[in-house]
Each structure stands twice: as C-alpha cells, then as structure tokens.
Sequence to fold (145 residues):
Amino acid sequence: MTSHSVSNDEIPKWLRNFVTSAISGILDTKWHAPIGCHCHQYNTEWEVTLFLTSTEVVGGAMDGAEIPVPFQVEINRVMSCFDHVPSVHWQSDKISEDDSLKQHISFQGTVKNNKVWLRILKCAPEGTTPGRLLCAFTGKTTDVW
Fold:
C-alpha cells in the first residue's frame, strides 16, 4: 500500500480542475469563510476532503467564539463533476472515537480515469484554524486563509 499527502504544488491539474468544479456544488450565503481542501493519494485512489472554515469573533462578549457556517450541497452538481456516476453516501455522525471526519457526504467515482473519493464535511476538522475573523464592533470580516 502506498499512501502520502501531497503539497499544493504536487496536485495534478486534472484534480485541481475537479476540486474547483466540486466546490461549485457547495451552496451557502455570501458570508461563508474560505473553503479548505485536503488531498491525499492512497494507492491508486485520490482522497479529497472539502470543508468550510469557521469564522472567529474578535472582541465583544463572544470574543474567541468560532461560528460554523450553514451550507447546502447540490448533489447533482457535485456528481456531474465525475466522469462516471459515483456512489454517494451520507455519514450522520462519527462512527468511532478516531473518526475525525464526523458528519459528511462522500462521493466515489472516476475523473480522467483516476479513482477519486470526495468528502464534503459538515464542519472543518478539529484543529483547523478559523478561515475568517469577524470584528464584533464593526461587523467587518477579514479572511485569514
């Protein structure tokens, strides 16, 4: 078995294009924080994990609070990013103590003759820093990613 995470420079162009297309299936308000992406190659399959980062409140009574962003996934749009109709699964909660993905929807299929397992997480993985700051006093947001 071969497994390795890849740096941004090592992601093949076809996979970058796929990720960009898949992101278009995430529907939310204009106020969402940046979208995070982790890519990992395991044997002959690419594992891609997408998630919206949280927004951290700066100042005021809620200083330091991290606010998750509600969003929707347009399933058909994401499925159309694959060359072959993928299998689709929903995981409603974490299934073991070491399950860091928790709630997510996953798609498995092929893109440009490559196996791809795409997961869109409900929340950013634990330990992920907020992607946006919200000033409690001005209401102004700043992307930090």
